Amino acid sequence: MSTLSLTSAFSLLLKRDLVLAYRRRAELVNPMLFFVLVTAMFPLGIGNDAKLIEAVGPGVIWVAALLAALLSLDSMFRSDYDDGSLEQFMLSAHPVSILVLAKILAHWLVTGLPLFIVAPLLAVLLNIPASAIPTLMLTLILGTPVLSLIGSVGVALTVGLRRGGVILSILVLPLYVPVLIFATDAVKTAIVGIPTTAQLSILSAMLVGSLVLAPMATAASLRISLS
Amino acid sequence: MIIRFFHQMGSPRYFYGVAGKMIPWFMTSFLITLLVGLYYGLFVAPADYQQGESYRIMYIHVPAAWMSMFIYVVMAVSGLISLVWRIKMTEVVVISSATIGASFTFLALATGSLWGKPMWGAWWVWDARLTAELLLLFLYLGIIALHSAIEDKRVAARAVSILALVGVVNIPIIHYSVEWWNTLHQPASITKFDKPSMDMSMLMPLLIMAISFKLYYGAVVLMRARAEIVERERNTRWVQEMVEQEVK
Prior knowledge:
The complex is a heterodimer. Chain A is an all-alpha fold.
């Protein structure tokens, strides 16, 4: 049975998760819908002062993205934990961290990428100038995978708990702070028209760093949660 | 000899006994250094030429802030040891440290805002080091919450160890990102070892207080560890015998 190579195991798992997500299309829309709704709540809360909305825009979009990512995290390992397939992954001959990476990638494609797609619309809603929208998109495409990667450690630690949701947010939100800071700063800098290479480089560094470290921590956490 | 010592310290029963003998030593030396440090800090050290008397809260605030970081590192190191070598006693240290670390972090935040009111005119400002300390408090609370949520305490200890390690990787990143984000805190005046920008008469009490806080941590972590050991080992013979002795 272990004739399956690592790359084909990776792509099989990825394909399986994507198919599973596609079969439940209605759920696919939810994180995106949540993202749009939360963002739309802010102008209602702070009043329709165009200047003010423009000033808080990048922060609002990113906090909403953070919450949307957080809310969708729980589904990353939930169904596999419930039906026991997670234990089968643990028993497989392949390194668990690579298999975990496939699951995180699938999860990000399903929940993170949609945020990236609706972001320009929200940017227009919040008066963010068109010149800054490419930077916003860049921060989202660099930042949301980091959210999924860091979040996966938290999910792996809480997957066995009955009411893991609240604890998950306590564990994960403080770790999201650096992404939030650099991403919003990049967008704000872009609005003023200053180059944002520094912030984007740091975001890329975070992505690379978490890509290497998070799957290992997640694999170790899953082993503990399943023990 | 040393290896044998560490081997024995790994046994709950031996650890329990040794810890019991060490606590009084830690406690007395803590009380002595506390009294000396407070006396020199509050009465002997001169008033600051800019901040007057209110700078004296630093003698609590700064050691508490140091402890908040020190304890997190202790937790991460013992977490690593317990994950790699599966030593029960380091698991106990991780758990016992979390609440103490959270208390010190809270103390640092509370004294900081008490100092901030007369100095900055506000209880709270979103300044870099305050924010980083607040996030550290959240990390501690996350660890405590995770530990209390998992029923099996051995599993909980290992889960918490991983979380502490993830946190310790992130703390420098959080620290520098927050620093970059905004700063109006005065720069650290102690870290420059070659030439501290503080007079010796003010510095000495601070260092004594720092030692005193470490001794306090030593005493309390051992107490909490002993309680944790008894709870974990309640079904073993030696604990039951010990309890019977107590009852008699």
